[in-house]
Amino acid sequence: MADDTKPVERAYVEEIGEEPRLPGHETELDPKPEWQPRYPGSGRLAGKVAIVTGGDSGIGRATAVLFAREGAKVAIAYLEEDDDARITADAIEAEGSEALLHPGDLGEPDVCQGLVDKVIEKWGRLDVLVNNAGEQHPDKDVTDITVEQLQRTFQTNIFSMFYLVKAARPHLKKGAAIINCTSVTMYKGSAGLLDYSATKGAIVAFTRSLSESLIKDGIRVNGVAPGPIWTPLNPFGGAPPEKVEHFGEDTPIGRVGQPNEVAPSFLFLACEDSSYMSGQVLHPNGGTIVGS
To answer: Is 276 a catalytic residue?
Structure first.
């Protein structure tokens, strides 16, 4: 049981040692996640510039490469997994597009501002912001959650979204889109991921409120709430080994989802196909029925 009761008096918390293998390298996963786009592009993001956070692996990689296939130039933000990020960049370039890599902790406002500044310097515009980066730390009881872990989880999962939106806002024009990644855990709860689930609830509230704030300027804000998806997040410490062994089997579909089964939801919300949608959340979760 954690005995840490002192408040955290810093605006930024360094990486914690709860799960030292996080965030994990996709190159080490077996089996490998399926991230490759499943269908030809149709130019739905032609001429657009996108930022995808957590774009080195998993859902972020699948989304970034799909965006590139649809014509977008893509900036990838990631923590420290240079090998995974390089694979993503190579895949973007193989689609005939351009990539920009930006390592760093998005829980620091200066890192977020630096990312946006690099994008504007390189491409002169920003059309789509995908807030996908996140972290989680499993605990059996609320008393096991340290103050540092609590603040770190909120810092990565929701504070970073505020920082990035603030940095991006001056460059987002009419027709721009913001897509935030929440989770099925926001809707059904998760006994072992109390702090993580709480951040995902905050993301839904942020998404709906930000939509109300920006829609008058023609900027749409929506969310995606994936279910269990095969990415490095859970196998490298984000879930207990016994849960990873049967990950996704409790969904109605009966299996774990793949990143390229989630990326099309982000694409739909990023392009004009969803021009009449804002403040909404899509649910690629294996058939779990949840409230909207």
So the answer is: no
